[in-house]
What does this fold into?
Amino acid sequence: MKLIIVFLLILPTLFAQNNDRNAIHNHESFNSLIKGDWHLAQIEIVDGYNIFSDTNRFISQEIHNKKITITTDSIYNHHDSTLRYYVRNRNFSYKIQYDSKMRTNYLKLYEGKIRKLVEVESYEIIKCTIDELIIKSYQVINNDLGYTSISIVYTYRKENVSDLLKEFSDDWFYCSKQRNSFMTENDSLIYEFTRTFNDSACQKSDNHIGLEFTRENYDNIVKFEFFDEFSGVLGKLKYSIDPKNNLIYLISKSKSYVYKYELVNNEKLILSLDTAKTQKINTHTTK
It folds into this structure.
């Protein structure tokens, strides 16, 4: 029997903000995503404006314990208790504005009283998901000795997400004699993945799933492969993590899947479909 291999490239846009730049996504959903507590994970300085091109970049190693809280109309800075000196926190009002010419959303910060608000900063929103907020400021440096421009990219994540991304990052394998239904809405199986590929176990099995969690540009990506005795499927999609509820979202443009996860001693990854949340997210997507 010939083995037929199908290559799938799933292009996800759900929850994404900057990769589908044709229009602003569901505004109500976006406003709910941006609200909450965010922890600064990384500051990156990029040469020029286009951060997605192959340009020089520098990742700052001086990341302090920075936390912000975003509400319906305000951004609050939390004091960093690890600092030896006092830093006055500035809190801001904000608005999200969509630029139809640039096809980009901007986070605009304001200070002052309601009737006399003054814009103090504008950030391009690169990404806004349930677990990650990435914004960019563009700076022109112009003095008597020269002229240049840089982009400063700020990556914020929900609490514990950075640690979980490291724990997920790797190859995971699942082998079974039972035909799997992974990434289907009727999936009722419990999958126990291991980091180490077990040759002897997988040779005796008819079904094999491989997952590789990685990062491409500013997206968290899971590459997958499904094999049985007749066919194989290869592809990739985006993912987001909800550590508060132990959920992982496997996100595609047409259909997405929400799995409950459990990490055991950093060696086993157990996944089971949350049917209700999967149906809800797909109903919302198709509206």
Q: What stands out?
A: Helices lie at 27-34, 161-168, 199-203, 275-285. The longest strand covers residues 36-47.
